[in-house]
Amino acid sequence: MKVLHWYRSMDLEMGGVVRAVLDISGAMADRGHEQVIATFEQAELESMWTSHGANRSVLQLTSSGHRRRPLAGESLQRIEAEIGNCDAVHLHGVWDPACYQLAGIAERAGVPYLVSPHGVLDDWCMKQKSFKKRLYLAMGCRRMLNKAKAVHCTAEGERQQATRWFNPDRARVVPLVFDLDEYLVLPGPEEAHDAFPSLFEGPPVLLFLSRIHVKKGLEHLVAAAAELHARGESVRVAIAGTGDLDYVERLKEQVASCGMEEVVHFIGFVSGTRKVSLYQASDLFVLPTHQENWGFVLLESLACQTGLVTTKSVDIWPELEASGGAVIVERSAKSLADAIQPLLAKPSRLETMGKRGREWVLEEQDADRVAELYVQLYSD
Question: What would be the CATH architecture of the domain defined by 2-177+366-379?
Answer without folding.
Answer: 3-Layer(aba) Sandwich (3.40)
